[in-house]
Amino acid sequence: MNIVVDGVNIFVATGGCVFDSKKPTVVFVHGSGLDHRSWALQARWFAFHGYSVLAPDLPGHSLSEGEPLNSIENMGKWLVKAIKSAGAESVHLVGHSQGFLVALEAAALLGEKLKSLTAVASASAIPVNESLVETAKKNTRDAADMLLKWGFGSQSHTGSSAVPGMQPIGIGRQIMSMNPLAEDLLACNKYKNGTRCAKTIKAPSNVIVASEDKNTPYKFGLELAELLGAETTTISGAGHMLPIESPKSTLDAIKTFILKINQ
Questions:
Q1: Residues of the chain with pLDDT > 70: what percent?
Q2: What is the CATH architecture of 2-261?
Q3: What is the separation, in whole angstroms, between the first and last Cα of the chain?
């Protein structure tokens, strides 16, 4: 569906079902250079199991209009406006990588609307390799290739795929090459507010980490979990791109946590 935020048309995937603001809503926030397609399996499961789903393309990404936002703080404020525009009343926030930093900022502003917070392959800060940033400024496709080489675990690099006939590295490259990757990476690099924000979160939280994550290494995910007082789930044999690399395992970790809260 489409919503308007700050006068800009924004695309929001709803998992294949009509959005119903009265249902508990799971909000999925994509990572750097990605879009709503990162959450295809996860969004669809929740939409068909009693929840509403919002998986927006951030401004300037894929099907959303507007200019990309230049800071994580601004993205967090924008996300709160998007949730309000859609009319969601009860929110479970889920963010991948940079998307979790955005969700973390939004969580601090949502008040009683926030029911839970889930980090997928993330940390309280995500410093970015300077070579990657400089490459992204010059050529997004080359930067996407670099990021994806680091971002997937060993099984994906041998051609293994959770979806028969589809190669997640190729899908990631196609999406990232068309999106403002440099702007996203710069926003991650500048963000220093994660630790302070995490300490303010009172809602139940969950941190999903990957054993082969080179972008936000395992130990930093565990540090985030300690800051949040969060439950932790480890997905073995996978890298940073969990939502598209290990979609079913990622879904299982998210739904186990959220279903327990809604019992």
A1: 92
A2: 3-Layer(aba) Sandwich (3.40)
A3: 29
